[in-house]
Amino acid sequence: MNNESVxxxxxxxxxxxxxxxxxxxxxxxxxxxxxxxxxxxxLDGDIEDLNQDxxxxxxxxxxxxxxxxxxxxxxxxxxxxxxxxxxVSAALVFEDDILLADNFVxxxxxxxxxxxxxxxxxxxxxxxxxxxxxxxxxxILEIKSNQYLYLRSSGRCAGAYxxxxxxxxxxxxxxxxxxxxxxxxxxxxxxxEAGLLNIYWCHPTIAEQGSQxxxxxxxxxxxxxxxxxxxVSWLFKKMFSFIRF
Length: 245
Fold this sequence. Notes:
The protein is α/β, with parallel strands linked by helices. It is built from 8 helices and 9 strands. 39% of the residues lie in helices and 16% in strands.
């Protein structure tokens, strides 16, 4: 696909809860329509969909329970299961609070072109983070002209990322074999530590989680800071986050 207005990816998934988050659904549908991104909601894996067999398959510790955190982790795993079942070569995964930049498709496509052209990148072990949710970015001393991907030892949450089919298989196999009590962003980091996954940060960042920046209430954080306070705090931190060397 050479047309920069058409997203260059096999499939796009959005992890979403069936009931109670209509504002997020409306936001996602509006953005995807505006950016011409075909996508599929992952609606399975809500708390009411979790039974003992499902909990036993992947989880241990505090995640082996009927909680929003377990449901969120399960939705990511179910996305990977769907990739494997349908032989999806690579996918773009969003959580439903994601807010995309107007140039998302353009930068995403350039990052994927780089992924496949660089000899130092193993496509089969790759995950690309597109969001600024930790307010961490590539140092200005590292940035190179026409380079979008920078190898890192950890991710930046799990709200907007690219993952290859082989990486999805590795995660599913390891998680099923060893079980986990970690959320997906931390599990990605564990895969890096085990030498099974390489994480790249995309620069510039082109996505932001609305539950981080105060646009949406958080479905996981029990601390009720309030959207306005969270928004002001986020904007203040973001203002100074670019000053990194």
